């Protein structure tokens, strides 16, 4: 019942992950403009055909051809994505015909997605890109199929455990970060067994990894937390693998090692299973699940274990509490804070842990 991300936005992000040089949105100039602006920070040039009222009746293939010509002249791209919108797709604009009419050395991917594409799930837009990318030889068919399977599993998780469960979910900004940070520090100081589970998604991992980027040795040298993370550097689209490499390198530079690798950043729907097995095999006192915590079946973990979820969605706070998490911390604007970066960025919760730790040291 409440608004959710659009398939169009998912198409844009997936083209970004394929390292597209230019994306052309075939629709009105205001369509998905915030996403387009944000993606400019990631080095993607986002253009629009700026369809107007007359174009909704008579079509705008000439505008699309002209925009593709200008993009070719201005940026000399190697990979271009043309993304349909509600306006162009409802009137049946032929993206492929426009591509055939323009001379360019770039690979141009026609992505026929729109706001209500398929079942209307945002992942439908990403799947549309992957299917076209495979057809045009940008990625192997096997990788496209793997990615599509992950996206379908992600949709299932959102519909059964997340913010797409069907009812209206009131935004909630979670528990007091200072109080929750004190719980983490108390457990570490008292020698309790603590585990951090990073189950993050794409570029938002730069924000969530900050919770791991803490000088734990200064808190209790004899009691270091175990770190479980989906940071496999060899899985995913080119940009996604680079994120995992960047984060791992920065953590290692700061003396923080990952004890268990559960998979890649695009495997967040399935990596929790490995994390769950690790948690069950060890007698932890406190578990902090960061990123996409609702994918992990916390209800199947020992109920005596104290649990904390760190999420980026105010509408996920209540579902996470319903799943059984004792505390839920909400980070805001994860996408906007992490677009365009190649380094870990400060998170509110990570900064709070460090701040309180420093207070204790200075007492």
TrEMBL record:
It holds the Pfam family Oxidored_nitro. One of its GO terms (molecular function) is oxidoreductase activity. Gene3D superfamilies: Nitrogenase molybdenum iron protein domain (3.40.50.1980). Residues 13-151 form the Nitrogenase/oxidoreductase component domain. This is Nitrogenase/oxidoreductase component 1 domain-containing protein. It comes from bioreactor metagenome.
């Amino acid at each position: 019942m409440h608004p959710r991300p659009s398939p169009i936005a998912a198409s844009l992000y997936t083209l970004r992950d394929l390292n597209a040089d230019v994306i052309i949105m075939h629709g009105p100039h205001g369509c998905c403009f915030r996403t387009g602006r944000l993606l400019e920070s990631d080095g993607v040039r986002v253009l629009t055909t700026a369809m107007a009222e007359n174009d909704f009746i008579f079509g705008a293939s000439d505008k699309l051809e002209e925009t593709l010509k200008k993009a070719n002249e201005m940026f000399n791209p190697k990979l271009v994505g043309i993304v349909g919108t509600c306006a162009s797709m409802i009137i049946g604009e032929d993206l492929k015909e426009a591509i055939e009419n323009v001379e360019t050395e770039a690979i141009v991917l026609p992505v026929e997605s729109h706001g209500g594409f398929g079942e209307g799930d945002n992942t439908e837009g990403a799947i549309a890109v992957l299917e076209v990318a495979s057809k045009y030889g940008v990625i192997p068919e096997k990788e496209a199929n793997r990615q599509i399977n992950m996206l379908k599993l992600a949709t299932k998780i959102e519909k059964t455990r997340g913010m797409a469960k069907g009812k209206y979910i009131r935004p909630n900004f979670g528990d007091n970060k200072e109080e929750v940070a004190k719980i983490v520090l108390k457990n570490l100081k008292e020698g309790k067994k603590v585990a951090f589970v990073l189950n993050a998604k794409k570029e938002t991992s730069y924000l969530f990894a900050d919770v791991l980027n803490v000088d734990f040795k200064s808190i209790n040298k004899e009691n270091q937390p175990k770190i479980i993370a989906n940071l496999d550097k060899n899985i995913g689209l080119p940009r996604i693998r680079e994120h995992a490499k960047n984060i791992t390198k920065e953590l290692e530079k700061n003396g923080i090692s990952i004890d268990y690798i559960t998979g890649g950043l695009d495997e967040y729907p399935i990596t929790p299973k490995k994390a769950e097995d690790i948690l069950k095999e060890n007698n932890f006192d406190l578990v902090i699940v960061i990123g996409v915590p609702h994918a992990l079946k916390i209800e199947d973990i020992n109920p005596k274990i104290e649990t904390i979820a760190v999420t980026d969605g105010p509408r996920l706070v209540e579902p996470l509490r319903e799943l059984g998490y004792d505390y839920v911390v909400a980070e805001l604007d994860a996408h906007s804070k992490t677009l365009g970066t190649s380094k870990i960025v400060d998170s509110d919760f990570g900064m709070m842990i460090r701040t309180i730790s420093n207070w204790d040291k200075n007492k």
